[in-house]
Structures are given as structure tokens and as C-alpha cells.
Amino acid sequence: MTVTDRLPVIVVPEDELRIAVGYATDPGGRTENEDAVFVAELPASDVGPATDRASFMMVVADGMGGHQGGEIASRIAIDTLRESIGNGTAADADMAVLMKQAFRRANERIYEQGQAQGDGTAMMGTTLVAATTRGKYATIASVGDSRAYLVRANRLTQITKDHSLVAQQVAEGAITREQARTSPQRNVLMHALGQQPKLDGKLPSIYEITLLPEDRLLLCTDGFYDVATDDDLLQVTLAVDPELAAARLVTLAIERGASDNVTAIVASVSAARVRKAISVGAAGGRSVLEPVLVAIAAILIMAMIAVVYFVL
Ligand code: CA
């Protein structure tokens, strides 16, 4: 018999984050869907005890290029990330480094495929935005203008910076944010995967955030930008069920006449009050609490005897 068998188990509440993820995609205003989406829960055994649960990988890609080039490019991007990270990673591996390597590999594969297929698909490429969570830590990587948003305390914040011409013009003060929304050049990208043999050294852009209970993450393609306001995205993303939220976002875009493919992933973060059992004293060893409890009990008994003797 060990000490832990005899002593009571103290139950203490411990906050843990739970993450639920839903996604939806639709051709929207087009006949073909060149967007691709992938969501997977990372194997818990590979994540390690220090990072708890709630480990997901979420990826959205928006392909471009004629003769199915866009579909091929977005599919290669998703497949490369799934193969690199989606099957599990070492618990101590640096997720930002893994994501960078996977993005660079995806770029090379798409470029090689484009070259191999010749004229029609030579210019094929894709945006790629990916988010991984390990417990409360989220790592987001992006190339192109598909976006990751954070919804926190009833506010929508764009996490990723668009690699687009209009985003650059806004940053330089040449045009306003509102002008960017309606600019005829709003679809012109500065960076995408598959356009160059090697991805630019500063890419992908990496963002690391610490998640809080009630946060939402939204990953989406640019099909929403023309037809949904920030407030639309905020209100719909706040739905309790992330699968329903993603489906509603896509439906909303279609109802408003989206001319492009539309894809959304919604992740909702919640605090699970887990009642975690912590044993008093290590198994196999004597607890320091035991003599203390005995002493307290002895003092109480002596006090009661004293009360009976002197008062009664
Ligand atoms: Ca698009």
C-alpha cells in the first residue's frame, strides 16, 4: 500500500482549452472550385503532455491558373502540409520552422508541376494560410491574400497581412482601406506559391498568438471580401457551433452573389473546467502532509478536552 492509497485525493479545478473546428467550401459564383481546405486533429501522442489537448491543423488554399491549374496548385499545397505536419510532429519541434519548411516544399512542388505541364498551367499558383494549435498556442503561416482573423472580446482582428498590391498601397498611404476594397487591382498578388522556383526568403509570414477562452479563429479565402463586411464576419463567426458558423458564412456569401469560390474554417475556443485529481504525496513516498494532519487532529482533540474540563 502506498501513501496515495490511504490519503484522500484532493480534486482541484484546472482550466483547459477545448477547440472545436468546422469548415465549409463552395464554388460560389464559379463552376469550378479552385479553393482547397483541410482540417485535422493532430495525434495527441505526438503533441506531448506539456501541451495538453486541442491540437489542430487548419489549412485554406485559393488556387489560380488555367486548365485546372488552380485546383492542382491548391491541392498540392494542402497535401504537402498534411504530409509534413498533419500526421503529427515531435512535441519539442518548433512549429514555425516546420510550417516554413512545408510552405517552401509546397512552393517547389507547385512550381515543378507547373513547369512539367507546360503552357496552360505554367502560371499556376495558390495562396496558402495555415494555423496549427498546440494547447493554447497557435502558429499561423501565410502566403497570399487568404486570411486568418481572430475574434476576441466581440472584435474582429485580421491576423495575417495580405501579400497583395492594394495592401502594399494602403501601407504606403497611396490609397485608403476603403479604396482598396473596390480597387480594380484588388486581386493582384505580390506573392503566391508556385510562381518562383524558390519561395522568397521572408516567406511565409508567421504569426504566433496565445489563445484565450471564447476566442474564435477564422480562416478564409478572398471570395468573402467583396460581399461580406467585417461586421458580417464577426457576427456569423460568433455562432456557438463552428460548423454552423462556417456553413452560414458560405451561405451568406452565396446569397449576396459572390462571384468567386468561398471557403471558411471556424475554430471556437472554450474553457473546459476539468476536475483534475491530484494525489496528496507522491506514490511510494511519505506525504509531508500526514504528520501535519495528525498534529492538527491532536490539537483539536486537546482543545475539546480542555473545553469539556474548564467550561462544563
Ligand atoms: Ca479566390
Q: In terms of topology, how is this protein built?
A:
Elements: H1 3-6, E1 9-26, E2 35-41, H2 44-47, E3 56-64, H3 69-86, H4 95-117, H5 119-122, E4 125-126, E5 128-134, E6 137-143, E7 147-152, E8 155-158, H6 165-171, H7 177-182, E9 205-210, E10 216-220, H8 230-237, H9 242-255, E11 262-279, H10 289-311
Antiparallel strand pairs: 1-11, 2-3, 3-4, 3-5, 5-6, 6-9, 7-8, 7-10, 10-11
The structure holds calcium ion.
Calcium ion binds next to loops.
Question: Main traits of this protein?
Answer:
312 residues; alpha+beta; 6-stranded antiparallel sheet; 5-stranded antiparallel sheet; 10 helices; 36% helix; 29% strand; elongated; disordered N terminus; binds calcium ion
Describe this structure in words.
By secondary structure, the protein is an alpha+beta fold. It contains 10 helices and 11 strands. It has helices spanning 3-6, 44-47, 69-86, 95-117, 119-122, 165-171, 177-182, 230-237, 242-255, 289-311; strands spanning 9-26, 35-41, 56-64, 125-126, 128-134, 137-143, 147-152, 155-158, 205-210, 216-220, 262-279. The strands form 2 sheets. Strands 2, 3, 4, 5, 6 and 9 form a 6-stranded antiparallel sheet that branches. It has a 5-stranded antiparallel sheet with strand order 1-11-10-7-8. Helix 3 runs antiparallel to helix 4 and helix 8 packs antiparallel against helix 9. The protein is elongated and about 105 Å long. The two termini are 43 Å apart. Mean pLDDT is 86; it is low at 1-14, 45-51 and 279-286.
